[in-house]
Amino acid sequence: MGLAVAQPLASRGDWHIHLVGLNAERGAAAASSIGSSASFRQTNIASYDSLASTSKQVYETQKRTDFVPVNAGIAGHANFYATHDTDPPPPVAGFDLIVDIDLEFVVSTSYLALHYFRKPLDAKDKCLVMTAS
What we know:
By secondary structure, the protein is α/β, with parallel strands linked by helices. It has four helices and four strands, in the order αβαβαβαβ. Strand 3, helix 4 and strand 4 form a beta-alpha-beta unit. Helix 3 packs parallel to helix 4 (95-117).
């Protein structure tokens, strides 16, 4: 979904797109498919420190942050809808990472986006978009 958002934005010609993610090979390939107006930054989005470092690097590179789409999702790590016919209730194994990515990442990214949206002082319109899967 992130790539589908990045491609039309990059085609505008006046934007530089920063893709973030953990998988360096897939991220570099995605950035390459967009062209010279995109770059990839390997980031562990489950780590606030990693996410904050990348956010700072992007801002320092571009001297602005205008648009942040927040759309990570990794629901495939656990089956929320699986039935269990045994007692005691089933463990929540596998849900920690889902919560880290699908909830905490959204909050952390939004918080960091708002921080960098406020810079520079002559900031123009900014946009934060959150999607859920």
